[in-house]
Design goal:
mainly alpha, single chain
């Protein structure tokens, strides 16, 4: 349900924290379900209108799985096509990907 809210734009703020809070209550979570939720969050953050505050929270979350999902989405064909076609989007991504130097090891590893 949360993934659907993210995709529709109706999700309340604090996405990364909400995903992290929902996970323990849903354990054991099948990898496909978890991947779907994490992928929805990553996709929304990588959208041209992705909210900076939500990305900041993700970068500083220290959640290896969540950051890895973001990294996979960032290397996906949709983002690649957007980066190639839109210099403004590419510049925005570059700025985001190089900021947050104090976010922690998981973010710096991406």
């Amino acid at each position: 349900m949360f993934a659907r809210e993210l995709r529709s734009g109706s999700a309340e703020p604090d996405w990364a924290e909400r995903v992290r809070a929902l996970r323990p209550g849903a354990e054991p979570v099948e990898p496909g379900v978890l991947g779907h939720a994490f992928g929805a969050l990553a996709g929304r953050l990588l959208a041209p209108d992705g909210p900076e505050a939500e990305l900041y929270a993700l970068a500083h979350s220290g959640d290896a799985d969540l950051i890895a999902a973001y990294d996979r989405a960032a290397h996906g064909p949709d983002v690649g096509a957007r980066l190639a076609a839109d210099p403004g989007y590419a510049a925005g991504c570059f700025a985001v990907w190089t900021e947050h130097p104090n976010a922690g090891a998981e973010w710096r590893r991406k």
